Amino acid sequence: MVEKEDTPQPTPEPAHEPVRGIKHIFAATRYSAAGLACLLKQTAFILELCGAVGLFIVFALIGAQGVQFLVLALLFLLVFCVEALNTAIEMIVDELSPNRSEFARNTKDLGSLAVACTLLGTGLYATYVVIDNLLN
Fold this sequence. Notes:
Elements: H1 22-39, H2 43-62, H3 66-96, H4 102-135
Helix pairs in contact: 2-3, 2-4, 3-4
């Protein structure tokens, strides 16, 4: 019988005291910036960001109203939020289920569906605004 070599296990990071007060706001901002940096490495997010910029340019060219720009901005923030959550889910699934499994596939497909739904809603709204502004 061959004995396995003892593989060194990663040392867990020590628990730290929760940050309170104004320091909490700065810590949360750093965590959010780190999340954005992680998201900026994702092709899907970069494409969504380019789509947002493109639609803002189209809205400017057709003379969209301020409230239409605001709704578009809110919809894209929702898209970015869902994309961030989908990316987090995928990272968790990849860590927990490194081999192909139905669980992993279904979980990732559901996250992808959530992103697709927000993109479809944003696209329908943008289409409505463009057609409405061109006809009026």
